[in-house]
């Protein structure tokens, strides 16, 4: 998965067989995942009222895109108010700043980087959970072609769960495990993450936006950039990685001490996160590094990330866009200009 890891590790594999045997003997085994009983999530019944239904499904941003239309409906006023309040709780503001992206796969500190200015935007405090993604599945999201790019239509039949129903890879009969309702959804490709984001009226963060959220290199005289959302030193009690020894995902509200300054949680650890950016990087000779299939950038590390150098705000890697792995999830973002509830608050206070 991590091309840069493979590039750096090549020289190690070229060393003596004795060294490899010694390393294999000394390496600690990965923690065994805890087996949980599967309890299918119950089917929810939603209101027939379209405005209420939008709120119950969590499609707040879709509802707020046309406030005048929804307010004209019978329950529209209350629905708009609920949607605004829910998004204000669910999302956090990421201020303007600058990020520096390494341009080569073997880049070291001090090597050439690409500086990118980031405009303020909104990011979900939590990764998308199984319970939230269930709403998309139950609403027929896999059958609605408007959410999927045309070039991927032939592959939609492959996006099945373990019982061949349209759903994330590790679900059964189109249902998630109710014991994991508040865990991040995994077993979803980049296309599934993008489709869900469109369904709720949001989008995936770009790679640079994700990095800005995690490193917090805001525009200020202090000019501070963090290696981790909480500071500059790894602390496996603030995130869920291999050395934490959970051996699996945890609920998305765990590890509050690992939050970014704006209280966005789990940007490092628990799951890698899809971003809305192709993974583009070169070797030391400036030649593009290409995978077997199109790759998208993933960031942040996961519960099974062994090398702590990968679980940082700065580490770059990519994943095949069609991959549906047990350690990759996502969260959603939104342009600040779409945050109509913030504009309404300013208007009400006369600012």
Number of domains: 2
Task: Please give the count of helices.
Answer: 10
| Largest β-sheet summary | 4 strands, mixed
- Give me the side-by-side strand order of the main sheet: 7-6-5-8
Residue fraction in strands: 5-15%
Number of strands: 9
Oligomer: single chain
CATH architecture assignment of the largest domain: Alpha-Beta Complex
CATH topology title of the largest domain: paralog of FGE (formylglycine-generating enzyme)
| Overall outline | globular
Q: Between the first and last Cα atoms, what is the distance in angstroms?
A: 49 Å
Radius of gyration: 21 Å
> Roughly what percent helix?
25-40%
Describe this structure in words.
26% of the residues lie in helices and 12% in strands. The chain is of the alpha+beta class. The chain has 2 domains: 47-91, no CATH class; 95-349, Alpha-Beta Complex (paralog of FGE (formylglycine-generating enzyme)). The strands form 3 sheets. Strands 7-6-5-8 form a 4-stranded mixed sheet. Strands 1-4-9 form a 3-stranded antiparallel sheet. A two-stranded antiparallel sheet has the order 2-3. The longest helix has 15 residues, at 76-90. The chain is globular and about 60 Å long. Residues 1-33 and 346-351 have low confidence and may be disordered.
